[in-house]
Amino acid sequence: MHHIKILLLAALLFLSSSLSFSQYAISDSTQTEVRMLINLMDYIAKDYQMAVEDGEVINDFEYAEMTEFSGNALEIFNRLKKDSSIDFEPIIEQEVERLQSLISEKAWPAEVSETANFIRDEIVELRLVPLAPAAWPNLKKGQALFAQQCASCHGADGKGNGPASAGLNPMPTNFHDREVINKIAPLQAFNTISLGIEGTSMRAFEELSPEEVWNLSFYILSLPHKGEKHRSQQAIAKIGLEEIATLSNEKLQKRYPDINIGSIRTAPPEVDNDYLSVAQNLLDQSLKAYNEGDLKHASNLALKAYLQGVEPVEPHIKASDNKLFQDLEASMMGIRASMKDGEKGAVLTAYELATSKIEASKTLLGSTDRSMMMTATIALTILLREGLEAFLIILAILGILQSMGAARAIKWVHSGWIIAVVMGIAGWFFADALMTWDAQTRELMEGVIALVAVLVLLYLGFWMHGKTNATKWKAFVETRVKTLINNNNMIGLASFSFIVVFREAFESVLFLSALTADNSSESSMGVFIGTIISAVLLFFIAWSMLKWFKKMPIHKVFFYASIIMLALAFILAGEGVHALQEGGYIEINSFPINIRFSIIGLYPTYETIFTQLAIFALIVGLWKWSSRKSLATSP
């Protein structure tokens, strides 16, 4: 058991390092410089017209600022150019140098603005930094942050007339001035809030998380439309979140002349079908990028379509038609797999299949009026499934310790799973923060914890199997019960108990949070009812199994416990790889036969099937080796 502690600590260290994984290859400090460069271009493009007119300086302060900003931009670019991981096109360097010359020559504002926008767009296209939030920002949270952090200067209504604004130069921005706000994109607001503006009273709000800054940025752009009634979701379904985040109102209107900007800035998706519309829109963009030959961007858009459009409504579709959800999930992954294979016909077929499944899901959800009792049923199903998976393992361990009379060890196992459940309950109260994690990070966490659990389950399963021989278990009970009571082993037991249950608790909180996303009292009461009923049922199942284990001879307890451990290791191996594939961390190569049986972790990809086959072969081989060794050492 001492080895369990070492294994778990190593696994948890691996998990913590894995969660810091980023799809962006450059360092945090370099990302900051990239953001600064983008921000400088935004400001020059927008504010140069206030400094120069007809070749003459009309505002000395603004012109000095423009001169300083263009010099800073060139310095930053030269530093970034030395980074071997960034591949700048030569024209970007030429234009950055040209921009400085244009400003020093007091060139026409239109030419300066065009040059700055060109540089900005070229750098944005390199995708060196995250350009959009992972999920739709929460405007209510943005409003609360604005009142706390911004109202003193910008005013309670955002009109630039806060009590601290007197004497400031330049004056705080009036966010109701459409001439100003229509030139600002949420990405520019994000960069300004994160980095501040040197030489002004606008400081960097480094204490805010990226999610909070995005909430604030999107709220600021909604201010001119406050009080207007815009609830059309068609506009949002037509445009991707990345475009909404990176384009100003002027650029959005130019690209999409028919849209209503008020709808874009004030009405993020709030119902299930809106998310599915987002998924369809991203798939359309993905197909367009594929047809243009940009395979990497096409694959990324297809991944976003799943993470941003399908994953948020997974519990609702699963509860109504699990087969449809499995088909939808498989078709979304199939697009990425076919893009990797490079056959255009297969990509089109996969795209059409995914589109049909999205439409079927829209129809399903549109025809389903989710009542309180239906929500309770969904919650009950989720908690029973997740709970049984975890507690089968815990009960197997408890059954063994109970048969051995190791009362102290039993308390440590209980402490591990109780802490995990308490953390899950605490997570419920921080569910909004959890839901701001991007879906990719959530998939990563689920996948890594599952694979860590596989290693621990294999170790424990064969450790238990080695004790099934009558002589072995008798000697073990006589000589090892006392050894089991030392603190090191107890911490190992508690850690194992914690990690097995925490994975399921974490996933349950995410699912249940999605069920209450509409903030209705019926949904909340339904989740509460489902939770209470599932807790009662799990308690009854646990009590019955422990009674059953108590009546068994100890060698049979060891035998059945080892079977449970190894079976769950097999299942979690498939689930772990599948979660990492959903998050885009592992490639997808479709298996020619569509064999899918998610209850045992079986999915139709070579990666999941080969992983499970390897685990199965390992289990069979070690089982035979352990049996032979046990027979060889028997009297």
What does this structure look like?
A hairpin with a 2-residue loop joins strand 1 and strand 2. Helix 20 runs antiparallel to helix 21. The chain is an all-alpha fold and 635 residues long. The chain has a two-stranded antiparallel ribbon with strand order 1-2. The N terminus is likely disordered. It is elongated, with a radius of gyration of 29 Å.
SSE topology sketch:
Blueprint: H1 2-18, H2 28-47, E1 52-53, E2 56-57, H3 60-81, H4 90-104, H5 109-125, H6 139-149, H7 151-154, H8 178-181, H9 186-195, H10 210-222, H11 234-238, H12 241-246, H13 249-255, H14 261-266, H15 272-291, H16 295-310, H17 314-320, H18 322-341, H19 344-366, H20 372-404, H21 407-429, H22 431-435, H23 439-465, H24 470-480, H25 487-515, H26 521-550, H27 554-582, H28 606-632
Antiparallel strand pairs: 1-2
Mean pLDDT, all residues:
76
Helix content: over 70%
Shape: elongated
- Give the strand line-up of the largest sheet: 1-2
Largest sheet: 2 strands, antiparallel
Enumerate the spans where pLDDT stays under 50 for 5 or more consecutive residues. 1-24, 432-436, 468-482
Rg value: 29 Å
Order of helix and strand elements from N to C terminus: HHEEHHHHHHHHHHHHHHHHHHHHHHHHHH
* Number of E-type strands: 2
Give the percentage of residues in beta strands. under 5%
Distance between the termini: 26 Å
Please report the number of helical segments: 28
Assembly category:
single chain
Helix-strand category: mainly alpha
